[in-house]
Design a protein that fits this description.
With 210 residues, the protein is α/β, with parallel strands linked by helices. The protein contains 7 helices and 6 strands.
Length: 210
């Protein structure tokens, strides 16, 4: 898939990967690694959300402190960092609010929002897409089971309509969900292959999702 290369400038490009991370799992890491391997960002920040505006947390969800701790376990490599911006800043944490807030707080950086390719067909239903897309860079991760032609057409459509700079990046398909992990953890079943071993150990020791 053709990549849209960032224009040369003195700013560091920061990839932003948001979510509840309840818990962080191997699917999240596959997406993060795809963004890293694209060569289009200098760092990647995981951005845990305490309570997304579009959904509610489950009754057995981990606390935001535990979710933050699990992320920190798997971000020891300098390329990956954890930002507590959405935890420490009040507001609804819609994507347009978060990006504007980060840009105001860190004017020396260029922020690049990371999404799954499926979101390309939903993003116009998000809160204020006209405040998200124009002039911004986004990375859309495309799995092997996606229709590349449809993805390319949608990227080109959004870039023309909003003057955005969306880039498709390839990632490995990993069939894993946070819901499945929480259900398995509640039953005391193995989480091998679903989450990093450090995260599984943390879940066991803390008795999360029981």
């Amino acid at each position: 898939m053709k990549k849209n290369i960032f224009s040369n400038n003195s700013q560091i490009s920061i990839g932003v990967l948001g979510g509840t991370f309840d818990p962080v799992h191997n699917g999240h890491l596959a997406l993060a690694n795809a963004a890293k391997e694209s060569g289009l960002i200098s760092e990647l920040w995981f951005l845990p959300n305490p309570l997304p505006p579009h959904k509610s947390l489950q009754s057995n969800s981990a606390s935001v402190e535990d979710r933050l701790a699990m992320l920190k376990l798997i971000t020891e490599e300098s390329f990956y960092k954890v930002s507590d911006y959405e935890i420490t800043h009040e507001g609804g944490h819609y994507t347009y609010e978060t990006l504007s807030g980060l840009e105001h707080l860190y004017p020396e950086y260029r922020f690049c929002f990371i999404i799954g390719a499926d979101s390309l067909f939903q993003i116009e239903t998000w809160k204020k897409p006209e405040a998200i897309l124009p002039g911004r860079k986004l990375l859309a991760a495309v799995r092997g089971d996606h229709d590349y032609a449809d993805i390319i057409r949608q990227i080109e459509f959004l870039n023309r309509k909003y003057n955005s700079e969306i880039c498709g990046i390839r990632m490995n398909s990993i069939d894993v969900s946070s819901t499945e992990i929480r259900e398995r953890a509640a039953k005391g079943e193995s989480l091998k292959g679903l989450v990093p071993s450090l995260v599984e150990d943390y879940i066991r020791k803390r008795g999360l999702y029981r």
